Amino acid sequence: MNLFQSATRHIWTGIRYWSFKTLSFLSGIVPLRFAYWVGARVGDAGYLIWKGHSANAVSNMRRVMGESADWRVVKETTRDAFRNYGKTLVDFARFPHLDEHDISNAIPSQGGWENLDRAIERGHGTLAITGHIGNWDMAGALMGSQGLPIYAVADTFQPKKMDDLINGTREKYGTKLIKLETGSLKQIFTALKRNEIVLLLFDRPQPNEGVEVQFFGEPAWLPAGPAAIALKTRATVLVGYCARRRGDKTFHGEFGEPIEYEHLLTGDKERDIQIITQEIVSRMEQIIRQYPDQWYMFRQMWPRTDRHNAEIKRRNLRGATS
Q: How far apart are CA 11 and CA 17, in angstroms?
Protein backbone atom coordinates (compact mmCIF):
# COMPACT_ATOMS: atom_id res chain seq x y z
CA MET A 1 0.00 0.00 0.00
CA ASN A 2 1.52 3.33 -1.09
CA LEU A 3 1.51 6.53 0.93
CA PHE A 4 -1.50 7.99 -0.91
CA GLN A 5 -3.61 4.86 -0.37
CA SER A 6 -2.61 4.74 3.30
CA ALA A 7 -3.54 8.40 3.81
CA THR A 8 -6.85 7.95 1.96
CA ARG A 9 -7.73 4.92 4.08
CA HIS A 10 -6.83 6.78 7.25
CA ILE A 11 -9.00 9.76 6.28
CA TRP A 12 -11.96 7.56 5.30
CA THR A 13 -11.71 5.62 8.56
CA GLY A 14 -11.70 8.89 10.49
CA ILE A 15 -14.78 10.08 8.62
CA ARG A 16 -16.62 6.82 9.42
CA TYR A 17 -15.59 6.96 13.08
CA TRP A 18 -16.59 10.55 13.70
CA SER A 19 -19.75 10.20 11.62
CA PHE A 20 -20.89 7.36 13.84
CA LYS A 21 -19.94 9.28 16.97
CA THR A 22 -21.88 12.31 15.75
CA LEU A 23 -24.92 10.29 14.71
CA SER A 24 -24.88 8.47 18.03
CA PHE A 25 -24.82 11.77 19.90
CA LEU A 26 -27.63 13.26 17.82
CA SER A 27 -29.77 10.13 18.06
CA GLY A 28 -29.64 10.40 21.84
CA ILE A 29 -31.03 13.95 21.97
CA VAL A 30 -33.60 14.13 19.15
CA PRO A 31 -37.11 12.63 19.52
CA LEU A 32 -37.17 8.94 18.62
CA ARG A 33 -39.95 9.41 16.05
CA PHE A 34 -37.86 12.00 14.20
CA ALA A 35 -34.75 9.79 14.38
CA TYR A 36 -36.72 6.91 12.85
CA TRP A 37 -38.04 9.22 10.13
CA VAL A 38 -34.45 10.11 9.23
CA GLY A 39 -33.48 6.43 9.32
CA ALA A 40 -36.32 5.57 6.96
CA ARG A 41 -35.19 8.30 4.53
CA VAL A 42 -31.67 6.86 4.66
CA GLY A 43 -33.25 3.51 3.76
CA ASP A 44 -35.07 5.10 0.82
CA ALA A 45 -31.80 6.57 -0.40
CA GLY A 46 -30.07 3.23 -0.07
CA TYR A 47 -32.80 1.49 -2.03
CA LEU A 48 -32.49 4.00 -4.88
CA ILE A 49 -28.71 4.43 -4.94
CA TRP A 50 -27.36 0.94 -4.19
CA LYS A 51 -28.80 -0.63 -7.32
CA GLY A 52 -27.00 -3.92 -6.88
CA HIS A 53 -28.20 -4.39 -3.30
CA SER A 54 -31.77 -3.37 -4.09
CA ALA A 55 -31.86 -5.73 -7.09
CA ASN A 56 -30.64 -8.57 -4.86
CA ALA A 57 -33.23 -7.70 -2.22
CA VAL A 58 -36.10 -7.58 -4.76
CA SER A 59 -34.99 -10.92 -6.18
CA ASN A 60 -34.88 -12.43 -2.67
CA MET A 61 -38.26 -10.95 -1.73
CA ARG A 62 -39.80 -12.46 -4.85
CA ARG A 63 -38.83 -15.91 -3.57
CA VAL A 64 -40.21 -15.15 -0.11
CA MET A 65 -43.55 -13.79 -1.31
CA GLY A 66 -44.02 -16.30 -4.11
CA GLU A 67 -44.62 -16.19 -7.85
CA SER A 68 -48.25 -15.16 -7.41
CA ALA A 69 -47.40 -11.99 -5.45
CA ASP A 70 -48.05 -8.70 -7.21
CA TRP A 71 -44.73 -7.27 -8.42
CA ARG A 72 -45.53 -3.82 -7.02
CA VAL A 73 -46.14 -5.35 -3.59
CA VAL A 74 -42.81 -7.20 -3.80
CA LYS A 75 -40.96 -3.95 -4.55
CA GLU A 76 -42.86 -2.00 -1.88
CA THR A 77 -42.06 -4.67 0.72
CA THR A 78 -38.40 -4.55 -0.30
CA ARG A 79 -38.37 -0.78 0.07
CA ASP A 80 -39.92 -1.18 3.52
CA ALA A 81 -37.08 -3.57 4.40
CA PHE A 82 -34.55 -0.86 3.52
CA ARG A 83 -36.50 1.63 5.63
CA ASN A 84 -36.63 -0.73 8.60
CA TYR A 85 -32.91 -1.36 8.25
CA GLY A 86 -32.38 2.40 8.48
CA LYS A 87 -34.38 2.39 11.72
CA THR A 88 -32.26 -0.51 12.98
CA LEU A 89 -29.15 1.60 12.40
CA VAL A 90 -30.80 4.35 14.47
CA ASP A 91 -31.40 1.86 17.28
CA PHE A 92 -27.76 0.83 17.21
CA ALA A 93 -26.58 4.44 17.25
CA ARG A 94 -28.78 5.04 20.32
CA PHE A 95 -27.40 2.07 22.27
CA PRO A 96 -24.76 4.06 24.18
CA HIS A 97 -27.53 6.26 25.61
CA LEU A 98 -29.74 3.40 26.85
CA ASP A 99 -29.68 1.46 30.10
CA GLU A 100 -31.08 -1.96 31.04
CA HIS A 101 -34.43 -0.43 31.95
CA ASP A 102 -34.68 1.15 28.50
CA ILE A 103 -33.89 -2.18 26.83
CA SER A 104 -36.54 -3.99 28.86
CA ASN A 105 -39.14 -1.32 28.03
CA ALA A 106 -38.26 -1.52 24.35
CA ILE A 107 -39.16 -5.23 24.29
CA PRO A 108 -42.36 -5.46 26.38
CA SER A 109 -43.64 -8.43 24.37
CA GLN A 110 -41.51 -11.51 24.98
CA GLY A 111 -42.12 -15.21 24.49
CA GLY A 112 -40.40 -18.55 24.61
CA TRP A 113 -38.22 -18.03 27.66
CA GLU A 114 -39.27 -21.53 28.74
CA ASN A 115 -37.67 -22.86 25.54
CA LEU A 116 -34.39 -21.21 26.45
CA ASP A 117 -34.69 -22.64 29.97
CA ARG A 118 -35.19 -26.12 28.50
CA ALA A 119 -32.11 -25.68 26.35
CA ILE A 120 -29.97 -24.63 29.30
CA GLU A 121 -31.27 -27.51 31.44
CA ARG A 122 -29.96 -30.04 28.92
CA GLY A 123 -26.44 -29.02 29.89
CA HIS A 124 -24.66 -29.17 26.51
CA GLY A 125 -24.66 -25.46 25.75
CA THR A 126 -27.10 -23.53 23.58
CA LEU A 127 -26.76 -22.27 20.03
CA ALA A 128 -29.24 -19.39 19.78
CA ILE A 129 -29.57 -18.74 16.07
CA THR A 130 -31.13 -15.77 14.33
CA GLY A 131 -30.81 -14.02 11.00
CA HIS A 132 -30.53 -10.54 9.61
CA ILE A 133 -34.11 -9.89 10.60
CA GLY A 134 -35.62 -7.43 13.05
CA ASN A 135 -32.97 -6.23 15.50
CA TRP A 136 -30.48 -8.90 16.54
CA ASP A 137 -28.41 -6.46 18.61
CA MET A 138 -31.50 -5.60 20.66
CA ALA A 139 -32.09 -9.32 21.25
CA GLY A 140 -28.51 -9.79 22.43
CA ALA A 141 -28.78 -6.75 24.70
CA LEU A 142 -31.95 -8.14 26.31
CA MET A 143 -30.34 -11.53 26.96
CA GLY A 144 -27.18 -9.94 28.32
CA SER A 145 -29.13 -7.58 30.56
CA GLN A 146 -30.87 -10.60 32.12
CA GLY A 147 -27.51 -11.83 33.38
CA LEU A 148 -27.44 -14.80 31.01
CA PRO A 149 -24.00 -16.16 30.07
CA ILE A 150 -24.13 -15.16 26.41
CA TYR A 151 -21.50 -14.90 23.72
CA ALA A 152 -22.01 -13.42 20.25
CA VAL A 153 -19.83 -14.09 17.23
CA ALA A 154 -18.87 -10.77 15.61
CA ASP A 155 -16.65 -9.34 12.89
CA THR A 156 -13.60 -7.27 13.79
CA PHE A 157 -13.55 -3.69 12.52
CA GLN A 158 -10.46 -1.74 11.60
CA PRO A 159 -8.86 0.28 13.07
CA LYS A 160 -9.08 -0.68 16.71
CA LYS A 161 -10.87 2.52 17.77
CA MET A 162 -13.65 1.70 15.30
CA ASP A 163 -13.87 -1.83 16.65
CA ASP A 164 -13.92 -0.54 20.23
CA LEU A 165 -16.72 1.84 19.34
CA ILE A 166 -18.99 -0.64 17.53
CA ASN A 167 -18.31 -3.86 19.41
CA GLY A 168 -17.89 -1.99 22.70
CA THR A 169 -21.47 -0.84 22.27
CA ARG A 170 -22.53 -4.47 21.86
CA GLU A 171 -20.66 -5.51 25.00
CA LYS A 172 -22.26 -2.81 27.14
CA TYR A 173 -25.15 -5.03 28.24
CA GLY A 174 -23.11 -8.08 29.22
CA THR A 175 -22.74 -9.85 25.88
CA LYS A 176 -19.22 -11.23 25.47
CA LEU A 177 -17.87 -11.20 21.92
CA ILE A 178 -16.06 -13.94 20.05
CA LYS A 179 -14.23 -12.38 17.12
CA LEU A 180 -14.20 -14.15 13.75
CA GLU A 181 -10.50 -14.87 13.70
CA THR A 182 -8.02 -17.58 14.61
CA GLY A 183 -9.17 -19.40 17.72
CA SER A 184 -12.82 -18.36 17.47
CA LEU A 185 -14.03 -21.94 17.03
CA LYS A 186 -12.17 -23.05 20.15
CA GLN A 187 -13.82 -20.22 22.11
CA ILE A 188 -17.25 -21.35 20.90
CA PHE A 189 -16.59 -24.94 21.96
CA THR A 190 -15.34 -23.77 25.36
CA ALA A 191 -18.42 -21.64 25.96
CA LEU A 192 -20.76 -24.50 25.01
CA LYS A 193 -18.82 -26.91 27.23
CA ARG A 194 -19.51 -24.53 30.11
CA ASN A 195 -23.23 -24.74 29.19
CA GLU A 196 -23.30 -21.13 28.04
CA ILE A 197 -25.19 -19.50 25.17
CA VAL A 198 -23.64 -18.65 21.82
CA LEU A 199 -25.59 -16.30 19.56
CA LEU A 200 -25.03 -16.81 15.83
CA LEU A 201 -26.25 -14.93 12.76
CA PHE A 202 -26.99 -17.66 10.27
CA ASP A 203 -28.46 -16.47 6.97
CA ARG A 204 -25.42 -15.20 5.07
CA PRO A 205 -25.40 -16.94 1.65
CA GLN A 206 -22.46 -19.23 0.91
CA PRO A 207 -22.55 -19.97 -2.84
CA ASN A 208 -20.43 -22.99 -3.81
CA GLU A 209 -19.19 -23.35 -0.22
CA GLY A 210 -22.11 -23.86 2.13
CA VAL A 211 -24.67 -26.59 2.59
CA GLU A 212 -27.37 -26.98 -0.04
CA VAL A 213 -30.85 -26.74 1.45
CA GLN A 214 -34.37 -26.01 0.30
CA PHE A 215 -35.15 -22.41 1.22
CA PHE A 216 -38.59 -21.15 0.20
CA GLY A 217 -38.84 -24.04 -2.23
CA GLU A 218 -35.57 -23.44 -4.08
CA PRO A 219 -31.97 -24.59 -3.56
CA ALA A 220 -29.80 -22.21 -1.56
CA TRP A 221 -26.38 -22.56 0.04
CA LEU A 222 -26.06 -21.56 3.69
CA PRO A 223 -23.27 -21.87 6.29
CA ALA A 224 -22.44 -25.32 7.60
CA GLY A 225 -20.91 -23.94 10.81
CA PRO A 226 -23.90 -23.98 13.19
CA ALA A 227 -24.87 -27.55 12.27
CA ALA A 228 -21.27 -28.77 12.43
CA ILE A 229 -20.86 -27.23 15.89
CA ALA A 230 -24.12 -28.78 17.09
CA LEU A 231 -23.13 -32.17 15.71
CA LYS A 232 -19.76 -32.10 17.48
CA THR A 233 -20.93 -30.71 20.83
CA ARG A 234 -24.56 -31.94 20.98
CA ALA A 235 -25.50 -28.36 21.84
CA THR A 236 -29.19 -27.53 21.89
CA VAL A 237 -30.20 -25.45 18.88
CA LEU A 238 -33.03 -22.96 18.92
CA VAL A 239 -34.01 -20.17 16.54
CA GLY A 240 -35.25 -16.79 17.77
CA TYR A 241 -35.83 -13.23 16.70
CA CYS A 242 -36.59 -9.72 17.90
CA ALA A 243 -38.97 -7.95 15.50
CA ARG A 244 -40.17 -4.37 15.34
CA ARG A 245 -43.84 -3.95 16.24
CA ARG A 246 -46.36 -1.68 14.58
CA GLY A 247 -45.71 1.91 15.62
CA ASP A 248 -41.92 1.33 15.65
CA LYS A 249 -41.24 2.11 19.30
CA THR A 250 -41.26 -1.42 20.68
CA PHE A 251 -40.25 -4.96 19.72
CA HIS A 252 -41.45 -8.52 20.16
CA GLY A 253 -38.84 -11.11 21.10
CA GLU A 254 -39.39 -14.85 20.76
CA PHE A 255 -37.38 -18.04 21.35
CA GLY A 256 -38.57 -20.99 19.30
CA GLU A 257 -38.71 -24.53 20.61
CA PRO A 258 -35.43 -26.45 20.65
CA ILE A 259 -34.75 -28.26 17.39
CA GLU A 260 -34.94 -32.00 18.01
CA TYR A 261 -32.37 -33.32 15.59
CA GLU A 262 -30.83 -36.32 17.36
CA HIS A 263 -33.38 -38.82 15.99
CA LEU A 264 -32.69 -37.62 12.44
CA LEU A 265 -28.96 -38.34 12.47
CA THR A 266 -27.61 -41.05 10.17
CA GLY A 267 -23.96 -41.31 11.18
CA ASP A 268 -22.87 -39.76 7.89
CA LYS A 269 -21.29 -36.44 8.94
CA GLU A 270 -22.00 -34.52 5.72
CA ARG A 271 -25.55 -35.81 5.55
CA ASP A 272 -26.17 -35.02 9.22
CA ILE A 273 -24.87 -31.46 8.82
CA GLN A 274 -27.27 -31.01 5.89
CA ILE A 275 -30.17 -32.38 7.95
CA ILE A 276 -29.57 -30.05 10.89
CA THR A 277 -29.04 -27.07 8.57
CA GLN A 278 -32.34 -27.81 6.83
CA GLU A 279 -34.12 -27.87 10.20
CA ILE A 280 -32.65 -24.46 11.05
CA VAL A 281 -33.61 -23.07 7.65
CA SER A 282 -37.19 -24.30 8.02
CA ARG A 283 -37.51 -22.37 11.29
CA MET A 284 -36.00 -19.28 9.70
CA GLU A 285 -38.52 -19.49 6.86
CA GLN A 286 -41.41 -19.21 9.30
CA ILE A 287 -39.97 -16.04 10.84
CA ILE A 288 -39.20 -14.41 7.49
CA ARG A 289 -42.70 -15.18 6.18
CA GLN A 290 -44.10 -13.41 9.24
CA TYR A 291 -41.83 -10.36 8.91
CA PRO A 292 -40.69 -10.12 5.26
CA ASP A 293 -40.25 -6.35 5.50
CA GLN A 294 -37.74 -6.85 8.32
CA TRP A 295 -35.48 -9.31 6.52
CA TYR A 296 -32.35 -7.38 5.61
CA MET A 297 -30.87 -9.67 3.01
CA PHE A 298 -29.31 -7.39 0.43
CA ARG A 299 -26.96 -10.06 -0.92
CA GLN A 300 -27.92 -12.53 -3.62
CA MET A 301 -29.40 -15.43 -1.67
CA TRP A 302 -30.44 -17.64 -4.57
CA PRO A 303 -28.72 -18.13 -7.94
CA ARG A 304 -30.69 -16.14 -10.48
CA THR A 305 -32.12 -18.09 -13.38
CA ASP A 306 -32.36 -16.67 -16.90
CA ARG A 307 -36.13 -16.54 -16.46
CA HIS A 308 -35.83 -14.61 -13.20
CA ASN A 309 -33.39 -12.09 -14.70
CA ALA A 310 -35.68 -11.58 -17.67
CA GLU A 311 -38.65 -10.94 -15.37
CA ILE A 312 -36.71 -8.37 -13.32
CA LYS A 313 -35.61 -6.58 -16.49
CA ARG A 314 -39.14 -6.59 -17.92
CA ARG A 315 -40.68 -5.30 -14.69
CA ASN A 316 -38.06 -2.57 -14.28
CA LEU A 317 -38.59 -1.38 -17.85
CA ARG A 318 -42.33 -1.31 -17.27
CA GLY A 319 -41.84 0.70 -14.09
CA ALA A 320 -39.59 3.16 -15.92
CA THR A 321 -42.13 3.81 -18.67
CA SER A 322 -45.33 3.85 -16.59
A: 10
